[in-house]
Amino acid sequence: MVTYGAALHIALAAAETLAGDGVDAEVIDLRSLQPWDEAAVLASLSRTHRLVVLHEAVEAFGIGAEIAARMADVGFDELDGPIVRVGAPFMPVPYASSLEKAYLPGADDVVAAVRRTLA
User: Fold this and answer.
1) 3 state DSSP class of 87
2) Which helix (H) or strand (E) holds 88?
3) In terms of residue numbers, what domain contains 26?
4) 35 — phi, psi (to 5°)?
5) pLDDT tens digits, one per residue of 61-107
């Protein structure tokens, strides 16, 4: 899993859930987005042969799409499953905190994405 910012905690929670099921998930925390640590992500892809990109921003047209596109380009031969992006839906962020919690991706969404790459 590749993530950054507040989504790191979601990725770590998902990794803990997956570990309980016998899945060893690697989490990469991007400390900066420009430049981003492409070499670390490619090295992880080479070890795991799978990639899930997680962020709180909308799934479409963002940094996750760029990471997925770049890894599909330079790491295609390493992939054993689809690259899966997990992000918020393409809509305005709700103001109410109860709606915002439903809007943002959660650990269950990430666990489902990882399982999709393993299918």
Assistant:
1) strand
2) strand 83-88
3) 2-118
4) -80, 155
5) 989 999 999 999 999 999 999 999 999 999 999 999 999 989 999 99
